[in-house]
Amino acid sequence: MRTSFIFWIIRKALRYPLLSFTVVVINFLIPRAMPGDPLIFVFGEEVYAIALSNPDLTNSLRSKYGLDLPIIDQFWIYLRNLISGDLGYSFSYGRPIADIIRERLPLTLIMTVPPMILSLVIGTILGTNLSWKPGSLKRIITALCMIVRSVPTYWSGMLLLLIFSLWAKWTPIGGAPPAGAPLSEFISHLALPALVLTMYNLSYVTIIVRGLTVEISGEPFITTGLSKGLNWFKFSSRYLIRPSLPPLVSLAAMEVGFAFSGALLVEIVFSWPGMGYTMWQAVTERDYPLLQATFTITALIVIFANALADILSYALDPRAR
Amino acid sequence: MMGKLNRAEALGISLILAISIMTVLSLLPEEYFGRSSAAYSPPSPENLLGTDDLGDDVLRSLLRGSRVSLSIGILGSVFSTLIGGLIGVFSGFMGGALDDLLSSLIDLFMILPALPLMIVLAAYLGPSLLNVIIVIGLLWWPATARLVRARARQIRESPFIEGLICLGAGKLYIILRHVLPNVWGIILARFVLSVPGAILLESGLSFIGLGDPRSPSWGMMLHFAMTRGSLLRGAWWTFVPPGLCITVTSLGFILLGMGLEQRYKLSTKSVEGLL
Amino acid sequence: MTSGELEESEIGSQMLSEILLEGRDIEKRFRSFKRSFLAVRGASISIGSGEIVALVGESGSGKTTLAKILAGLLEPTSGEVFFMKKPISRMSKQELLNFRRKVQYIPQCPDLALDPMWYLYDSIAEPLRIHRIVNSRKEEFKIVLSTSSRFGLSLDHLRRKPRDLSGGELQRAVLARAMVLDPELLIADEPTSMLDPSTQAKIVDQLIEVQKERGLAVLFITHDLELAEAVSDRVYVMFSGMIVESGGTSEVFSSPMHPYTRSLLDSDPAPPEAVVNEAPCPFYSQCNISIDICRKSPPPEFGLGKRTVRCWAIERHRD
């Protein structure tokens, strides 16, 4: 085998683990690189202020957390903890962070995954449809997509909250139902945020799918086939969707990234206690360990999703061999 | 240089102009726009957009906020376009190991979720205007870099570059005097298209509470509406206007950017690059 | 007989007073992921000052690759290019700059040879600026204008950008730009194949005039045999990356030795195709005088007076 080929495979295979490692390292370095006592970043500002009044306590805490060790040792401890699942302790919540995340991550997933799936399905249909229907409908939808993309997601969330929860009283104002609650409650709580996220994702997917299929749709054999009354559904899935699958998969991966960014703010608006909401609380309370941990987990999940998508699109695309 | 404006550009510019008028108006002395009065009062002849939870006139805050949001948006975009453009040009034109390294860097930053990373950085750096601009610049450049890199590569393959090497031109010379002018169109379009992203990012950050409290932007107004109970009180006038302004501004820049792309005949695939 | 180094004493004409540019055993292999392509194999070529040398071959024969290697635009996989007896891969920055000034390359397609964003005037003046030859705008203007008008370009042309000019005008601009530095050697890669016949003739005429005026050496690359015969003093024939024959133009054209050259010159309706494989002799599959050894080892260059051939069969017959 050519050496360049081997290098290329190595690069691809190493990419994601390397990325993940970089994220972990960055997260480790940032608080220690900031001016000031790193202790404040381990404890959060409140506890730090308290600890300051007692120098002995501060010193013993320092050595307990290994902050007087050389950086490399600190890093190993950090890494070991991370792998074994010890994400530190949140002072604002008073609980181990790992527990908090274990509770909240599923909630974020509940809120982000359905809109992702919905937007991919609807978007693909809309996009392929748009690629061969001429004229004004296309322009309207394109315009709509642009507008949706200019609107801040959390603002539309606020608007919807105002109209449907406050005024019409159709949906609850916020929060999440407890674990055992019936499905209908989940739906009523999720309806508005899911709507916002779906719309947002939809605007991306539609345009990209249209871009992907527009070339194929222009072909003469398409237009003649359609005029002869070809079954649109069967046809589009074979000629339009199948070849577009690989980029669609990468698109889905991108969406995961967006999900965590966009959903973050939406969670705040609807007081939905997921990862985003937690991050926000961490920022407000200056609970740095919690902030760091949620960020690390979020980043790792996004990287993982991208890696998965990369592998999938490889498997689906014979050309890439 | 201008020539006739196409439809997208025209629309975009008119929207931007509208917002700019707001900014200009904000420079007028404060007495012109409503006074403080009772908190949470709905729009009235005295306070055209009502008052917020502190009793401040919403319209006045809106106008002041326009200055902040716009300047952060534009400066952040300048910063990120500069970084993205430089990296893209060098990566695309030089090729080789440098390209590999920079491309990996670009990919890394593209995958990382922008908002959470920004939150972490902003939280550590502290809330200030400058920090927000820095954070936007540091995280928004990959999209630009990717497009610029593609174009730089295209140019590198162009025969006239060969001719220049033949004449004895050095690489840096070629980059400065031949690649940059040919890449200029993309950079300009990307700059314009990055502004809405920057504005949205800034408002997102402010919404979380990481904006600069001394210079309240539109995002901050939304933050206050959320956290100080205006939303729950149904005081829609406190948050609908700022959100609307953000939307209109973003739309304006997007339209302008798309118009610029049409003018320079860049591929419309950059719609994806709107990330 | 030794391999084909042209011995100066044999040439005797005052034109070949020194060898300007020489490529020895140039090989170029292009590698990509799963494939590798041998574009040039074991080619040796030289151009002396003041002479017009033609490099002929069909498209795909590797002539452009060889030309670019000689011009210093591509690095050979093996072999060396010498300018004034110095290998260019080992030149200092100063020497390299000098090389770039004395040896100019004109690409095949004039359309993309100039920066589309630059005005023609600036493109033509550029070499002067790069090499810092002139000290004032006035001087520069004089030189640019005189060189351009030499090639039939007026001030009006100079004010425009490449997209506003015709193919012929662009080719002339490229020529002007190359000549503005008063080089000693011009490598012209199919300078006329992209133009219509009447413009072709004009360009060739101008080239010849300038060559005579300034004693310029020219490496003229073309697939047009008539053209090569008409203008050149010596000719190299290239097939599938290998230089199969070389010598004085009139000799080679009147009595070609190599079977490929023969079939080229016969008004053969089907000229042999370039072969993409790495057989020792690329012509083997189409050759009618091949012998056993042709299959096994690449034919070395055999010199016969001022001519060289690369063919086993000929060598055997000669003995």
From TrEMBL, chain B:
Which residue positions does the secretion signal occupy?
A: none
**What protein family is recorded?**
Belongs to the binding-protein-dependent transport system permease family.
Asked if the record carries the keyword Transmembrane helix, the reply is: yes
Which PANTHER family does this chain map to? Answer: D,D-DIPEPTIDE TRANSPORT SYSTEM PERMEASE PROTEIN DDPC-RELATED, OLIGOPEPTIDE TRANSPORT SYSTEM PERMEASE PROTEIN APPC
Offer a single GO CC term for the protein: plasma membrane
Q: What's the protein name?
A: ABC transporter permease
Q: Which UniProt keywords apply?
A: Cell membrane, Membrane, Transmembrane, Transmembrane helix, Transport
TM annotation in the entry? 68-93, 130-148, 186-210, 231-256
* Membrane topology listed for this record: Multi-pass membrane protein
InterPro entries recorded for this chain?
BP-dependent_transpt_permease, MetI-like, MetI-like_sf
Q: List, in alphabetical order, the GO biological process terms annotated in this UniProt record.
A: transmembrane transport
Occurrences of domain ABC transmembrane type-1 (ranges): 66-257
SUPFAM superfamilies assigned = MetI-like
> Which Pfam families would you find in this protein's record?
BPD_transp_1
Principal place of residence: membrane
Subcellular localization(s) per the UniProt record: Cell membrane
Automatic annotation (TrEMBL), chain C:
Reply yes or no: does the keyword Cell cycle apply: no
The answer to whether keyword Nucleotide-binding applies is yes
Q: A single Gene Ontology molecular function, please?
A: ATP hydrolysis activity
- Which keywords does the record carry? ATP-binding, Nucleotide-binding, Transport
Q: Name one GO biological process term.
A: transmembrane transport
Where does the record place the ABC transporter domain?
Answer: 21-265
**PROSITE patterns in the record, alphabetically?**
ABC_TRANSPORTER_1, ABC_TRANSPORTER_2
Gene3D superfamilies xref list: P-loop containing nucleotide triphosphate hydrolases
This one is known as ABC transporter ATP-binding protein
Q: Which family does it belong to?
A: Belongs to the ABC transporter superfamily.
